[in-house]
Prior knowledge:
The protein is of the alpha/beta class. The protein has a single domain, classed as Resolvase, N-terminal catalytic domain (Rossmann fold). 37% of the residues lie in helices and 18% in strands. It has 4 helices and 5 strands, in the order E-H-E-H-E-H-E-E-H. It has helices at 26-39, 58-65, 85-97, 117-133, and strands at residues 9-15, 43-50, 72-75, 101-104, 109-111. The model has no long low-confidence stretch (mean pLDDT 88).
Amino acid sequence: MNNSSAEKKYRGYIYSRSFKGIRSPQHVQNLVVRTFCQKKAAQFLLSSVEYTMPNSSWVLKRLLNDIASVDGLVFFSLWMLPSEELDRLQLYNEILEQKKSLHFALEEISLESFDEIQRIEDLFQIQSLLDSQNPIPEEFK
C-alpha cells in the first residue's frame, strides 16, 4: 500500500474471546479489519488483541492513551464496544474530541462526528430489545 503522508493510519482492535455469541479466529478478524482499511484507502496498522478475561478493556484503554499516533481505530465489530452506555459515550467523546475516528469493519460503520453517535446507540437499543426476547445462552457468551 502506498504510504503517502496524506494516507490515514488506522490501528485494528480485535478480540481473543467471543462476543454476542460470535467467536471468530483472530486471523479472520484481522483480514476483515485489513480489508476495511483498504476500502477506506487507509494504512492498516497491526491489530491489538484484547485480553481473554471477561469484560477486559485494558488493551482498549492502552490504545486510547496512544490515540495521538493514529487517525482512528478499527474494531472488528460494533459489538466489541463496551456494553454499558455511559462507557460507550465516554469512548466516543474521547475519540472525537481528539479529532480521531472509530470504525467497525464487520458492519462497515464509521463514527467520525458527534452527529453519528445516535445511529450507533440506536443499534444497541434494538439489540438490547432483541436480546431480551431471545437471550444468548450462557455457553455462547
